[in-house]
Amino acid sequence: MRPFIHPESRPVVFRDRAADVAFLTRSTARSSRTIEWEDGNTYPLIDVEISSASHPFHTGNSRVVDTAGRVERFERRYGRAAAPRH
């Protein structure tokens, strides 16, 4: 491996906002926010919307997706292009 070409990894806390779970791991991600961890040390904090703690694939829970509501919302927001009639 060539020296000095890889970013520095350090301990970082990732907090899953959906499941209200936090975990300490190593990462190259940077954050200006910090959190005091269970060991008494302060680490950078990165909030994520979904992780293995809340993702349906890992939890076994499925979510019902309202695709009709999404389509209607999209059409209201952006309008529907009129299709040419023959």
What is the strand and helix layout of this fold?
Elements: E1 10-16, E2 21-27, E3 34-36, E4 42-48, H1 56-59, H2 67-78
Parallel strand pairs: 1-4
Antiparallel strand pairs: 1-2, 3-4
Question: How would you portray this structure in words?
Answer:
With 86 residues, the protein is α+β, with helices and mostly antiparallel strands. It has helices spanning 56-59, 67-78, and strands spanning 10-16, 21-27, 34-36, 42-48. Strands 2-1-4-3 form a 4-stranded mixed beta sheet, with no helix packed on it. The chain is elongated. Belongs to the bacterial ribosomal protein bL31 family. Type B subfamily. Part of the 50S ribosomal subunit.
Q: Give the end-to-end Cα distance, rounded to a whole number of Å.
A: 65 Å
Query: What sequence of helices (H) and strands (E) makes up the elements?
Result: EEEEHH
User: Based on DSSP secondary structure assignment, what is the total number of beta strands?
Assistant: 4
Mean pLDDT: 80
Report the uncertain regions: none
Structural class: alpha+beta
- The helix content, as a percent range, equals 10-25%
Q: Beta-sheet strand percentage? A: 25-35%
Biggest beta-sheet profile: 4 strands, mixed
Number of H/I helices? 2
Shape: elongated
Instruction: Indicate how many domains the architecture comprises.
Output: 1
Calculate Rg over CA atoms.
21 Å
Which sequence of strands runs across the widest sheet?
A: 2-1-4-3
